[in-house]
Every structure is written in C-alpha cells, then in structure tokens.
Amino acid sequence: DAGVIQSPRHEVTEMGQEVTLRCKPISGHDYLFWYRQTMMRGLELLIYFNNNVPIDDSGMPEDRFSAKMPNASFSTLKIQPSEPRDSAVYFCASSLNSGGAGDTQYFGPGTRLTVL
Amino acid sequence: GQNIDQPTEMTATEGAIVQINCTYQTSGFNGLFWYQQHAGEAPTFLSYNVLDGLEEKGRFSSFLSRSKGYSYLLLKELQMKDSASYLCAVFTGGGNKLTFGTGTQLKVEL
Fold first, then answer.
1. Chain A residues in contact with B34 (beta carbon < 8 A)
2. What count of other Cβ atoms lies within 10 Å of the Cβ of residue B20?
C-alpha cells in the first residue's frame, strides 16, 4: 500500500489567501484525522471523520478552518483567509476500526504551510 | 481535560540504554501509543499498551501502569539513527481520539 498521501508537501502563501490541503487515506481505513504540529503546541488534533462523516471538530481553531470528506479516498482541509499564525505542519492520518492496536493511526508525510 | 507530560530533551550515548518517561491524567483511558518522529518527517508507530506490563519489540520496549498513569519507552543498544522525537499519546473516550504529549527530543551521541 502507498500509505497516506498528502499534497502539496510545501505551501507558501500570503496572508489572506485561501489554502487547500489534500489527503488520500490508506485504502480500507474507516477513520481520517487532520492534525497540526507547531513547536509551541506540539501535535494537535483538528478534526476527525468516521466513514466520511465528521465526528469531532472541537480542535478546529476557528471558522476560517473547514474540512470535508466527500468520499472514502479523499479529504480536504481549507483555510480561508489564511493568517501568519496558521504556519505549521499539517498531518493527515488514517486508521482501521478494529479496536486495540488495530486503531493505530498512520500518518502522511505532512504539508508544511508558511503564511507570509 | 487531558494532561500528558514528557521530558523535553534527553541525551544518551551510542550503545547505551535510555528510558523515556510519560505520565498522563486523562478522562477515560483506552490505551497508550508511542510514536517516533525524525526531524522533518511524519510520526511513525512504535508500540501500543493497554494492559499493565511490558511489551517488547526488538530493541524497543514499552511499559504501562494504569493505576499510576505512567508509561515508559526503553531503547536498548542505542544507534545514531535513534536520534528523534518520541511522542507519547493516550487513547481516550469513545471513537479513535488520540491526545499527544509534546514529545521528548532524544539526541544520541558518540
């Protein structure tokens, strides 16, 4: 399996622009997670989906952030408008729903976002 | 709320043994994971504990005490490539929600 795929790997944009991050989970995984990682706050869960349905979006920082999962093989995280404080590495992860160690989350390579 | 504590940094010598501790206070507990993250890369799965005791996997072992809210990751025969950040993460509540500690940056020296 190719693992979790994310694009783009790097994104540099200017404040106020819209940013869209993309993720393809591992085939057959029922759960998809979006995380943000910064030096100050570590790895934070933003939102996660089960069978394409958003389950918990309590980590989404504000209304500028939105996430969708239109089908089992694709998800997007959108920031509009972007701000410099959104600069971080954004990871997508996926997992099965078989319980115990089967719930291991597998991470994509991440998107390094820089907002100028 | 959730609180997970790990030391920020550790340094050890190649060939030695190092223990990275993690303490947690969470509402609900369904297991604890350790992940390794090299600089500029994604976290990768190392180990999972849900019952008290030691889980061994090659040079890496992980221990859990649920009553004490405590875990450690033990790395033996350290190699330079083990220099990385080690993240403790607790599985809580319903669903598949992981809460991560801020990570321990391990530096292996000659």
1. none
2. 21
> Is-contact B89 B100, C-beta < 8 A?
yes
Tens-binned pLDDT, residue by residue, of chain A (116 aa):
689 999 999 999 999 999 999 999 999 999 999 999 998 889 999 999 999 999 999 999 889 999 999 999 999 999 999 999 999 999 999 998 766 666 889 999 999 999 99
Non-local (6+) Cβ contacts of A58 within 8 A are: none
Strand segments (E) across chain B = 3-5, 9-13, 18-25, 32-37, 44-49, 53-57, 60-65, 70-75, 84-92, 97-100, 104-109
Question: Please, how many CA atoms are within 13 Å of residue A69, restricted to the half-sphere of its CB?
Answer: 22
Distance CA B98, CA A45 (A): 8
Chain B residues near residue A41 by CB distance under 8 angstroms: 102
CA distance A87 to A13: 10
Are the C-beta atoms of residues A94 and A4 closer than 8 Å to each other?
Answer: yes
CA distances to A115, B28, B83, B89 from B5, rounded to whole Å, are 30, 17, 20, 10
Q: How far apart are the first and last CA of chain B?
A: 41
* Residues forming beta bridges with residue A72, ordered by sequence position: none
Nearest-CB residue to B97 (from A45, A100, A110):
A45
Residue bearing tokens 């080690």: B86
Say if the Cβ atoms of B42 and A100 lie within 8 Å.
no
Task: Look up residue B50 and give its two tokens.
Answer: 């849900």
